[in-house]
Design a protein that fits this description.
By secondary structure, the protein is an alpha/beta fold. It has ten helices and eleven strands. The chain has a seven-stranded mixed β-sheet, with helices on both faces. A four-stranded antiparallel β-sheet has the order 6-7-9-8, with helices on one face. Helix 5 packs across helix 7. The two termini are 20 Å apart.
Length: 255
């Protein structure tokens, strides 16, 4: 493909371990990339997670003009923010209605209990209302990476829950999220939707974009981007992403 004009990333297990801050090396690479192209992050987490994991870890003194090239899309693209000198500025946020939230919460809890996936030992809440997304995290929002990895190494448990919940609420979008999570949003809003919004907001054609993610498999929440035809690069962790960026960045001209 030609040199991308925009590079978009998943967050957990692509830029950093799940729910963890990015490494100093990754922060430097993201800024170096933003000196050349637009940089987007699309993930299931809330804006506060993006702030803690990425924004607060970028190199001190990063120029405001460089920060303006970052596009933050929490909750799988149901929200969109741009960085400014005054913080994150909202472009849009597609909140679920109270009825949609209630039905989603009921369906995911009842199906998790029926499938014996409702754990008694957790690290924080299992269910979270993120405004534009309902998220089920089997071990809680703050579970350690090792515990989450061990809970469902093949993804079979999470995919079974996803299928059961989707059958209950067919008017909503139900996707496998991170290593232990299932995300529920409005129908048709996923990471592919986020990529189309990036194209509309930036004027950059989808053919000029590159997406980097760790869940490009058919059941993964990055798969919709691959399915829509955007060029994708699969990784297995943030170190893999760093190696890819170290090879890519020198090929891109500084703006």
């Amino acid at each position: 493909m030609p040199a991308p004009r925009l590079v978009a990333f998943d967050l957990d297990d692509t830029l950093a371990p799940s729910k963890s801050p990015i490494d100093e090396r990754m922060g430097e690479l993201l800024v170096a990339l933003a000196e050349r192209v637009e940089v987007a992050i699309i993930s299931g987490g809330q804006l506060q997670q993006f702030q803690m994991q990425v924004v607060d870890r970028l190199p001190a003194g990063t120029d405001a003009g460089i920060l303006a090239r970052f596009h933050l899309m929490p909750t799988c693209g149901t929200q969109y923010y741009r960085l400014t000198a005054d913080g994150a500025q909202t472009v849009y946020a597609h909140a679920l209605t109270d009825d949609e939230k209630s039905r989603a919460l009921t369906a995911v809890e009842e199906e998790a209990r029926r499938l014996d996936l409702w754990e008694s030992k957790t690290w924080g809440p299992i269910l979270e209302d993120r405004g534009s997304q309902i998220t089920f995290s089997a071990l809680g929002q703050s579970a350690p990476v090792a515990a989450k990895t061990a809970w469902d190494p093949t993804g079979a448990r999470k995919n079974a829950l996803r299928d059961a919940v989707a059958a209950r609420i067919p008017d909503l979008e139900v996707r496998s999220g991170g290593s232990t999570s299932v995300d529920i949003t409005r129908q048709g809003i996923d990471k592919a939707y986020g990529m189309r919004q990036l194209a509309e907001q930036t004027g950059i054609d989808l053919d000029d974009m590159l997406f980097v993610g760790d869940r490009l498999d058919e059941h993964g929440n990055d798969y919709p981007v691959l399915a829509m035809g955007v060029a994708c690069h699969a990784v297995t962790g943030w170190e893999d992403t760093a190696v890819h960026l170290e090879a890519l960045i020198p090929t891109l001209p500084v703006r």
